[in-house]
Structures are given as structure tokens and as C-alpha cells.
Amino acid sequence: MRYYELMVIVDGDLELTEGEDAQSLAKAIEAIEAEGGTIASKLDSEPWGRRRFAYEINHKWEGFYVVLSVVTEAFNLDTADRILRLADRSEIVRHKIMRLPDDEAARRGLVGEATPADAG
After folding, report:
1. The CATH number of the domain where 69 resides is what?
2. Are 29 and 83 spatial neighbours (Cβ–Cβ below 8 Å)?
3. Over the stretch 27-73, which tens digit does the pLDDT of each residue have?
């Protein structure tokens, strides 16, 4: 398993209530979980909230930042990346999937108990 960080900037003009995700973000999370991955920080992390951009993006000056920790295999992220890339630009402004180094994943508590491999 590998450890990733998924950052999504949702359009600041959307009226999202507390705990509600944009449709494309929800579909991407479902795609990750359907292919065997887990969202490690879906419940225990706080979204960054509404932030002002340093420059105008798609005629927008603000967006909601959401950062999720993902534990999955590398090939499981293709579907989620495609969903976010093809999302309507009025909903998802930007997204980025970054692989976390193993020491950073351990510092964040994402690394579980290692099980020894069977010989043979």
C-alpha cells in the first residue's frame, strides 16, 4: 500500500453546508473506496475552509480547500484523477494528488502494523 494526499479546491461560490462535499469530490472518494483504497482522514481531519487565491483562477478569487489522506495502490487513483479532471469547472477549481514519503506517512499515523511476508 502507498500513502497519498489529495488536495481539492472546490468553487467558493457553491453553497455547501457543513460536512457536505461537491458531487465530483464525492464521486472521486467513492471511486477510491470502490477499488480497495481508504480515505484515512475523511472523518478526523478538518477542511481548510474558504481561502482567497493569490491570483484569479477561472474568474474566481476564493475556494474551499479540502485535503484528504489516502491509503491505496497507485493504479487505484486513476479513476479518481479522471473524475476530478473531467469535473465541471464550475465545481472543482483545481486538484492535486501527491505521494507521501513513508516517513511522513508514519509521522501522520497512516502506517499500520507491518505484517511479515510468507516465505515460499
Report:
1. 3.30.70.60
2. no
3. 787 787 777 777 776 544 556 778 899 998 888 888 888 888 888 87
Q: Report which DSSP code applies to 17.
A: P
Give the per-residue SS3 of the chain.
CEEEEEEEEEECCCCCCCCCCCHHHHHHHHHHHHCCCEECCCCCCCCCEEEEEEEEECCEEEEEEEEEEEEECHHHHHHHHHHHHHCCCCCEEEEEEEECCHHHHHHCCCCCCCCCCCCC
Q: What residue has cell string 477510491?
A: 32
The separation between the first and the last C-alpha atoms of the chain, rounded to the nearest angstrom, is 21
Please give the residue range of the domain that contains residue 30: 2-102
In this structure, is residue 107 part of a structural domain?
A: no
What's the structural domain count of the chain?
Answer: 1
Within-domain flag for 85: yes
